[in-house]
Amino acid sequence: MKKFMVSRFGKFLVFALLINIFPGCTWFSASDVKSSNGHSNVFEPKTVAEFNELIKKDKVLVDWFANWCGPCGVMLPYIYQVAAEEGFEDVTFVKANTDLLGSEAQKFRVNSIPTLMCFSEGKKVGDRKIGLSSADEIKEFIKKNFS
């Protein structure tokens, strides 16, 4: 019996088709995933005031996302993984929903999601990273912007 093999590209096509077939589907939300050690330094502000209060902290990584964004849902577990790792306890991770915080997304010129940005004491620091990122890429981005 011949086994059916699916290439990585084939898997990507299936995923892309699912996104197009079910565009309103919520893949993940921040409440679906918990950090592995029970301690969470990940926040999802619901208002502009909450967002502005969170970015006033010393080291803040903001992940701009939307519930309908497939790559954002794929990246969500990586955010929680990094947040739970040793060496990143002093970083505040903020999941900023562009549908709820559209005015802030415009203010910081977020044109694509997912987008990562770093803040310190209310001011944007370093570069931005646009697109899907692995856990290792997120860690490198944080280290680069806060070194």
Summarize this entry quickly.
With 147 residues, the chain is α/β, with parallel strands linked by helices. Helix content is 36%, strand content 19%.
Q: Which structural class should the secondary elements be placed in?
A: alpha/beta
Helix segment count? 5
In the CATH classification, which architecture applies? 3-Layer(aba) Sandwich
Please state how the strands of the largest beta sheet are arranged side by side.
1-3-2-4-5
Q: How much β-strand is present in the residues?
A: 15-25%
Query: What's the overall geometry?
Result: globular
Helix content: 25-40%
Distance between the termini: 56 Å
CATH class: Alpha Beta
Model regions low in confidence, pLDDT < 50 over at least 5 residues: 1-39
The description of the largest β-sheet is: 5 strands, mixed
- CATH topology: the name is Glutaredoxin
- Number of individual domains: 1
Give me the CATH superfamily: Glutaredoxin
What is the ordering of alpha helices and beta strands? Answer: HEHEHEHEEH
The average pLDDT value, as a whole number, equals: 81
Number of strands: 5
Give me the Rg, rounded.
Answer: 16 Å
Highlighted features:
alpha/beta; disordered N terminus; 5 strands; Glutaredoxin; 147 residues; 5 helices
Task: Annotate the secondary structure layout.
Blueprint (H helix, E strand, L loop, with lengths): L7 H14 L20 E2 L4 H7 L5 E6 L4 H15 L7 E6 L4 H6 L7 E6 L2 E8 L4 H11 L2
Parallel strand pairs: 1-3, 2-3
Antiparallel strand pairs: 2-4, 4-5
